[in-house]
Design a protein that fits this description.
Distance between the termini: 40 Å
Oligomer: single chain
Number of domains: 2
Shape: elongated
Helix content: 10-25%
């Protein structure tokens, strides 16, 4: 796979994940599982597939867990951990990494998203355009998200449309995906040693009429910012299964199939109908990841994602639930609409 030595990447993994509490009291958000794999590892796989070999991961909240996880992560990137004693913001995190970054441009990837963004195409378009920065955007603007304004493929404003373009033809509003490429030229304009976001670098680009390129992503994207979106991302993949007990193309594009294979984690897919597995009745669509299950005589599904190891007590009924590793369900329990871990049960 061709590498991109002039481009490095930063995965943002320092946040507290406050809206996902109490899940994130015990585990940092980037290590929450998505179909048995830490979200962070899926991000690293995406960067590996794009040819980026040098990746920094910034940490703060429960950072020691992230460092330990990175020691066993199955992707092939060279990882540099940047521990922050206080959260520095995206801009501060990048300036903290000046020595590691050297003069390379940086692809910034939020550590709490699941997406099949075509990073190779985005990188190619960034280079072809000669832009100072490139932002990956959704086709439309989502409610509650800061709008990003585009005119003739050029980003012209974040949060506010410039007055000279008010009412102009060809202006569109979009949602930022949390994936962007920022050049060394404008990163140098950020202050050092401070807690600062990335937006001052963009303000500099806009003020000096430097090109900020848009890259519109038409595929799958979900931020894992709340219990509702965490479950929604899982459910969206269940809905792609159709009638075949095989992973859909989206499972492949997200890296789930390849990483499960690397880790020898079998995927048991029940796309539709009813089947027997061990001593349980499985109702599709339902996916089980791993091999260490004790399911007794229970009913699992529809719309369940269950990660091994797990023990489900006799006569339990479970539907529309995400059950993460080391879950224990007692006999005769009836559960629906929940995210369940060893320590936590919460409605989504």
């Amino acid at each position: 796979m061709a590498s991109t030595p002039d481009l490095k990447a930063l995965v943002l993994a320092a946040g507290f994940g406050s809206r996902l509490r109490p899940l994130t009291l015990h585990q940092p958000k980037p290590l929450l599982n998505f179909y048995g794999l830490p979200i962070l590892h899926l991000a690293l796989w995406k960067l590996e597939q794009a040819g980026i070999s040098s990746v920094a991961v910034n940490t703060h909240h429960l950072g020691e867990q992230i460092e330990k996880s990175l020691q066993t992560q199955p992707t092939r990137c060279q990882i540099h951990v940047s521990a922050e004693t206080k959260i520095l913001g995206t801009g501060g995190a990048l300036r903290h990494l000046d020595g590691w970054r050297e003069e390379a441009d940086v692809l910034i990837y939020n550590g709490d998203i699941i997406s099949d963004i075509d990073l190779k195409s985005m990188i190619a378009k960034h280079r072809e355009s000669g832009a100072a920065a490139s932002m990956c955007l959704l086709p439309t603007s989502q409610a509650g998200k800061t709008p990003v304004y585009v005119h003739e493929s050029r980003v012209v404003g974040v949060g506010k449309l410039p007055e000279n373009l008010a009412g102009a033809d060809g202006v569109s509003s979009h949602t930022f995906t949390g994936v962007h490429i920022v050049s060394a030229k404008i990163l140098a304009k950020l202050p050092k040693g401070l807690e600062v976001d990335i937006w001052p670098a963009y303000d500099y680009a806009f003020a000096h009429e430097l090109r900020v390129q848009s890259f519109i992503h038409m595929g799958f994207w979900q931020d894992i910012g709340s219990p509702k979106t965490y479950w929604s991302a899982h459910r969206s993949l269940l809905q792609t299964l159709g009638t075949s007990n095989k992973p859909s193309e989206l499972f492949k594009r997200l890296g789930i199939v390849e990483l499960c294979t690397r880790l020898n984690m079998p995927m048991h897919i029940f796309a539709a109908g009813t089947a027997n597995f061990q001593r349980a009745q499985i109702n599709g669509p339902t996916v089980l990841i791993g091999s260490d299950f004790a399911l007794e005589h229970s009913s699992i599904g529809p719309e369940v994602v269950l990660i091994a190891p797990a023990k489900i007590g006799m006569n339990s009924q479970i539907s529309k639930c995400l059950l993460l590793a080391e879950t224990l369900i007692q006999q005769n329990e009836s559960l629906t609409g929940q995210i369940i871990t060893r320590q936590v049960r919460m409605k989504y």
